[in-house]
Amino acid sequence: MISAVVINWNGREYLEGCLGSLLAQEPRPDEVILVDNHSGDGSREFAAERFPSVRVVDAGANVGPARARNLGVLSAAGDRVLLVDNDVVLPPGTLSALVATLDADPRCAAVQARSVCADQTDVLHYDTADLHVLGTLVLHGFFAPRAVVPPPVDPVGAVIALCLLVRRDAFEDVGGFCARMFILYEDNDLSYRLRMRGHTLRTAPDTAVLHAGGTAGLSFRSPDARYAGRRVTLHTRNRWLLLLRCMRWRTLVLTAPIQLLYAVVYTAFAASRGAFLAAMRGHLEAALAVPWALRARRSIQQRRVVADRDLLVALPMTANPGLADRGPKAWIRRGLDLVCRAWWSLVRPLCG
Predict the structure, then answer these.
(1) Residue 216: left if φ>0, alpha if ψ -120 to 50, beta else—which one?
(2) Is the pLDDT of residue 332 over 70?
(3) Count of CA atoms in the C-beta half-sphere (13 A) of 60
(4) Same domain, 134 and 239
(5) pLDDT at position 126, please?
(6) Is residue 224 part of a domain?
(7) How much is the pTM?
(8) Which of 6, 114, 244, 255 has the fewest CB atoms nearer than 10 Å to its CB?
(9) In terms of residue numbers, what domain contains 235?
């Protein structure tokens, strides 16, 4: 049985396309659930009237995508659950392609759809990803012409939950998404925990969902756009929480120089965008959450079967086009990549 869970917050304008495309899939999901983060734009009422077969669950507050997805899985009846963001439209055949990819690999816990920009369907938005040793994601094919990026056929290092089919047993086995992260790094965190348990992750090659505007006030697409302070805080805090929860102590100690270097560079970047205090708030919130993170890591690490050295990479980091492509920012970015790659090659064999 396949359940589809759509996550929504004030995204009424997207629901017609998203829910309509889901209900038009062949085969159609056995159930479709809209988990609404207590929107104030009439989303719940619109969905109930326009799509009466969709079950609407009100989260009661804006609990963030991570907790909303967990709530959706908990409310679902299927053994396979399709998690979809509200600004995603699924072309015909998407669900069947995801199911075929998942079923072809018994070790696979989750399959992500490739995505293209809704306003430029010949340009990829997300494709495949890897887990960087700094905790960030390395996105492959990021804003690249779709025609020049070959469809992925091998397991990937990480998945992104904009359109993600998960095996419920594997998802629940690792505890689902980290609800405390709210948004940002929750995909990294889930991917890390699934892979350290020996699961594989994949991207369905024969898919191309349309991804629209992103999360209001947090998503960042244009180099000229305002870089939200809330995004800076969440990025800073959640990276530290990911490292404390998921990384082995030996790995964290051995990579401490580049972890701290990245923190300094990102804080300087935030300052250049007028968000220095937001970055410092992220560091403070992470420090206050250390006791919680240490309690959480015990159960995570006890069940690990794959070492960090086999999970993490030090490939060039991903940045939005135009953000650090030239001038001093580009030099700093390339220098940071070189330092991380050299340091990781040195300490990787020693990491647990």
Answers:
(1) beta
(2) yes
(3) 2
(4) no
(5) 83
(6) no
(7) 0.95
(8) 244
(9) 229-350
